[in-house]
């Protein structure tokens, strides 16, 4: 059985950065094989991980919708495309979903894509899903259960309220989520108590806080893969403590 961890939260709170850290953690702890799924239409998980992406699953679906070249069944075509879309790296693979299909599209191409994605996921012990703020893709993966939802917020009341709303949304969407918790990221020195107070007023469990970290900022600004920050990064260490807790 694959264990899946999805990250959600308001825009710009650090979902992708923490998804990258989580993949690094899981690989380092020998928990693999790990599949990283970039479920953001404006995908950039690959940049955080220092990987080039080829075709996205959304592009494969569009090609299939336009028609499969002669002599190939749709299944064979989709299987081939899916294999091409998986980027292999050290200890983990990455797949990028790309642009979501139009609202309410349950076309054959989309159904096939979902089926193949599920088959792909079955090959891994762990799946980390980086979502966009809108949760578009995650809502389509209805047959997949999510073992752990990490809701990421910045240290603001509005961010924490959004986190609560996201959890409500997952319930409305009927997603099966077994466990969930809040991570407050980019916490500045001295804000800890106020964050705890604000979180205590919502329904979410606080898994931990990740401090604002200049190492992360510098890597980002220089275009270096954020997952390669040194072990002395305080954001990385704080994230690892949270992951230790959830992977117990
Ligand atoms: N703990 C941290 N300290 C400093 N900078 C951080 C930290 N976490 C994330 N960042 C920076 O904040 C910015 C937003 O992070 P990230 O892209 O991970 O957020 P996101 O939630 O995935 O955003 P989006 O909603 O656009 O997908 C990036 O520039 C990232 O480098
Ligand atoms: Mg992101």
What integer value in Å does the Rg equal? 18 Å
Q: In which order are the strands of the major sheet placed?
A: 3-4-2-5-1-6-7-8
Calculate the mean pLDDT score and round it: 88
Summing up helix and strand content along with how strands pair, one would put the structural category as: alpha/beta
The multimeric state of the shown protein is single chain
Largest sheet: 8 strands, mixed
Description:
The two termini are 17 Å apart. α7 links the parallel β7 and β8. Helices cover 41% and strands 21% of the residues. α1 crosses α9, α3 runs antiparallel to α4 and α3 packs antiparallel against α5. It has an 8-stranded mixed beta sheet with strand order 3-4-2-5-1-6-7-8, with helices on both faces. The model has no long low-confidence stretch (mean pLDDT 88). With 248 residues, it is an alpha/beta fold. The structure holds adenosine-5'-triphosphate and magnesium ion. Magnesium ion binds next to α1.
Task: Write the SSE topology.
Elements: E1 3-9, H1 15-28, E2 34-39, H2 45-49, H3 57-66, H4 74-85, E3 86-88, E4 92-96, H5 108-121, E5 126-131, E6 146-153, H6 157-172, E7 177-187, H7 192-200, E8 206-211, H8 214-221, H9 234-246
Parallel strand pairs: 1-5, 1-6, 2-4, 2-5, 6-7, 7-8
Antiparallel strand pairs: 3-4
The structure holds adenosine-5'-triphosphate and magnesium ion.
